[in-house]
């Protein structure tokens, strides 16, 4: 259990960096707010789900047994409105965009969630929680629905750090039948010609906040370890979740660690359809690939804001190439029969092992992916510097460097494994490089340069070094 004590995380609930301690041994429960599925997912969503994918990978790497849920909001006024515009059933529209979201997650190599939970499949739990809240005096009914009475929950505003009097003017829809302007809906009564369900309080739809507590309490119980999401969800969404859950169960705190990811803007502005600056995940992945987008998002600490620009993405692509070169060159090294380890190899091994230690320290220090990525890139640089000077290495050197690079790649979710190039392509490139080398010996520079330029056009970069010509298959940018 000594390894577990190393991880420290910033907790929004306490506004401090704390030692991470699961509530139940080494079993960890994590819930992250998922998308409202009425449109394609954008790079702001990518930032949240890529980061928590890395969190999940790291927790499992440390030896924790993790149960990770992402909810799917498939019941929402935006979904209903879009469905009316398209003349389709709201759940049909939600399933369509849920499918696109899951495709985007697969394309991004976000593989860590155990369950994607649809809100529409938890009506029984929603009804149960509302009934208990009504019975305990935390909720009340009006002709327009059921509302949570925030005056009955003295900690309301504590998570966001605001006074309840200030909160009532923020993102609150006016409703004359409510006792307090800040009271939020648990159930909304709707006309029968709209989409909805029968309930003890009339035909309608659940409130947004009750959907998440219904899911998390159903699977995790009244208290769990980590709740994550974007920073803009702290109020009102997460504030409301705390009020509902703790009033329902009587257990405090509802969540031990709250982790929030900073805002992502586009060229300094918030993404919005009216500004025409919404950048979809599939657009970026289609042009640059998942590795570039993941690297770009992870090179900033998760609590810091990111301003998305295409120029920054180009820079990330160039950074990624350093890693791709390192993998390719490791594969091209000739393995010596003897077990001798040269001085150059000892320097390389020392650097990559130090990089791994720095990587681990960074991840344990508030999940600092920016510093972890810097350590990863230092290992790649060490490999590239070594292969500039030598074309051979011992089995130990190649295996150690490859293992450490793969270790860091797997935690960051980057799929830059040299085996993806394939043995056939490797042999083919070796033939082409040999032919080009012969042309260079004969001073047939035009033909030699033509081969290099044509390979570059195909995404294969040749690099002439003192130890021979190396090559790397780069991540292609699709036009």
Structure overview:
With 479 residues, the protein is α/β, with parallel strands linked by helices. It folds into 2 domains: 3-298, HUPs (Rossmann fold); 309-473, Isoleucyl-tRNA Synthetase, Domain 1, CATH 1.10.730. Helices cover 47% and strands 16% of the residues. It contains 15 helices and 17 strands. The chain has helices spanning 43-61, 77-86, 90-107, 123-135, 164-167, 208-220, 234-249, 281-288, 290-298, 310-332, 343-364, 369-389, 395-412, 423-441, 445-457, and strands spanning 8-11, 16-19, 27-32, 65-72, 115-118, 139-142, 145-148, 184-189, 204-206, 224-230, 255-261, 264-266, 306-308, 334-335, 392-393, 460-465, 468-473. A 5-stranded parallel beta sheet has the order 5-4-3-10-11, with helices on both faces. The protein has a 4-stranded antiparallel beta sheet with strand order 6-7-8-9. A two-stranded antiparallel sheet has the order 1-2. Helix 4 packs across helix 6. It starts with 7 loop residues before the first strand and ends in a 6-residue tail after the last strand. The mean pLDDT is 91.
Strand content: 15-25%
Strand order of the largest sheet: 5-4-3-10-11
The average pLDDT score comes to: 91
First-last Cα distance: 50 Å
* Helical stretch tally: 15
The structural domain count equals 2
> Which CATH top level class of the largest domain fits?
Alpha Beta
CATH fold annotation of the largest domain = Rossmann fold
Largest sheet: 5 strands, parallel
Radius of gyration: 27 Å
What class would the helix/strand composition place it in? alpha/beta
Categorize the overall geometry: elongated
Indicate the percent of residues in helices. Answer: 40-55%
Fourth-tier CATH superfamily name of the largest domain = HUPs
